[in-house]
Amino acid sequence: MTMSDQPTPSAILDGVDLRALAASLSTPFYAYSAGAIRARVQGLQRALDGLDARLCFAVKANSNIGVLHLMAGLGVGADIVSAGELWRARQAGIAASDIVFSGVGKSADEIAAALDAGIWKFNLESADELALLQDIAYGRGVVASAAVRVNPDVDARTHAKISTGRAENKFGVDIDEARGWFANAGRSPNVRLDGLHAHIGSQILELAPFEQAIARVAAFWRELREAGHRIDSIDLGGGLGVCYRAGHDRPIDPDDYVAVLRRELHDFDGRIVLEPGRYLVAEAGVLVTRVLRVKHGRGRDFLVLDAAMNDLQRPALYDAWHDIHVVQDASAPLQCYDVVGPVCETGDTFARDRVLPRCAAGDLVLIGGAGAYGASMSSNYNSRPLLAEVLLDAGRYAVVRRRQSFAQMIANEQLPTAWSEA
Ligand SMILES: Cc1ncc(COP(=O)(O)O)c(C=O)c1O
Ligand SMILES: N[C@@H](CCCC[NH3+])C(=O)O
């Protein structure tokens, strides 16, 4: 059960008492419920039942190899955006033939690494990238399978910083340009253009933008089919939103989303690919942190946590809401706090004016919705070591990343003792 499903804050996640865990591991750390991830994956797989469909988890959402290993065991492939993510996915046991490679700036080295690994499909985002893939595949004497990422010019009605499917966004190519790629496919004999791809944005809570995008991609596929082009996969990206604020955010029912796929692509005879990231992991994760101190400011009370913006960037970056639970006696009186971290930035604020049970130093605090774009976006800012990650499963736990040590934090740095003439 995810934290936001619970009517009253509980410290039990996937059968593990986070109070006990926090007593043995030092806070802050991320805890992920394997059961909740499994339930999300299997629910989506059930909704897709009867379709030739494949889930490729967007590794950027949570790139911990323990989580990727869990995905592999559930028959989920990977959507990668870098050679580093390729490396992680392979280390975690995801087959190269289950990997698609997206991203607007794949380097020559990254393309070569993905070709050598034998990934399934390149999602190409520019004519230059098509030419580069052609050159590298030609040099290796192989033919790469590729999809054109089309930009369907749809407003995903999400935060501007995570909207990707408008004409003004850097992602994909417009359908006119994509038409030209297919017309000239013979000029790139080492690239088999046999797929379409679209991803319009993230944390999408309305079905209409998906309907528009899928209809545009489906119409383009029919046009290509009439022109004699064989498309064996249509990849509709990720984007399904989740509930960050209990009682407020209303995520799309995956059955409704899949009903759109079934309707718009009823005569498609290839494979449908989805690249969910957030939907599979966000609500399965919590950031476990403690109150360092309660500070009484001028007209405001600050709850200073031992977690900070370097550990979970989303509030600072997008003003994102995350539910915050104080592990406390339900009878504690309520109080209004600004919940902040120790980093030296005013933006290091998890929540403003949040009404919570009255807290004292040492209280345990759980920040919900932290399984996606949490640890994977964390940094060493203020020289704070990267925090630990723990996978929970039916009363057991496994540390899937140890907290970074100070020595590890500076391992690649050195004093300037050896100078080279430039
Ligand atoms: C190409 C691509 N696929 C999938 C995703 C995953 O998105 P989400 O986490 O919203 O499902 C992203 C990130 O937005 C992306 O850029
Ligand atoms: N990092 C973003 C999502 C970006 C999606 C990646 N294309 C978030 O935390 O919401």
UniProtKB/TrEMBL annotation:
Record's catalysed reaction(s): meso-2,6-diaminopimelate + H(+) = L-lysine + CO2
Limits of the Orn/DAP/Arg decarboxylase 2 N-terminal domain: 36-282
Residues the entry annotates as binding pyridoxal 5'-phosphate: 239, 275-278, 373
Modification N6-(pyridoxal phosphate)lysine occurs at: 60
Residues that coordinate or bind substrate: 278, 314, 318, 345, 373
Metabolic or biological pathway, per its Swiss-Prot or TrEMBL entry: Amino-acid biosynthesis; L-lysine biosynthesis via DAP pathway; L-lysine from DL-2,6-diaminopimelate: step 1/1
Enzyme class: lyase
PROSITE patterns tied to this protein: ODR_DC_2_1, ODR_DC_2_2
Names of the cofactor(s): pyridoxal 5'-phosphate
Range of residues in the leader sequence: none
Enzyme Commission code(s) on record: 4.1.1.20
Domain of life of the source: Bacteria
Keywords linked to the UniProt accession: Amino-acid biosynthesis, Decarboxylase, Lyase, Lysine biosynthesis, Pyridoxal phosphate
Subunit structure: Homodimer.
Function noted in UniProt: Specifically catalyzes the decarboxylation of meso-diaminopimelate (meso-DAP) to L-lysine.
Database matches in NCBIfam families: lysA
Family statement drawn from the similarity comment of this UniProt entry: Belongs to the Orn/Lys/Arg decarboxylase class-II family. LysA subfamily.
PANTHER family named in the record: DIAMINOPIMELATE DECARBOXYLASE, GROUP IV DECARBOXYLASE
Name of the protein this chain belongs to: Diaminopimelate decarboxylase
Gene: lysA
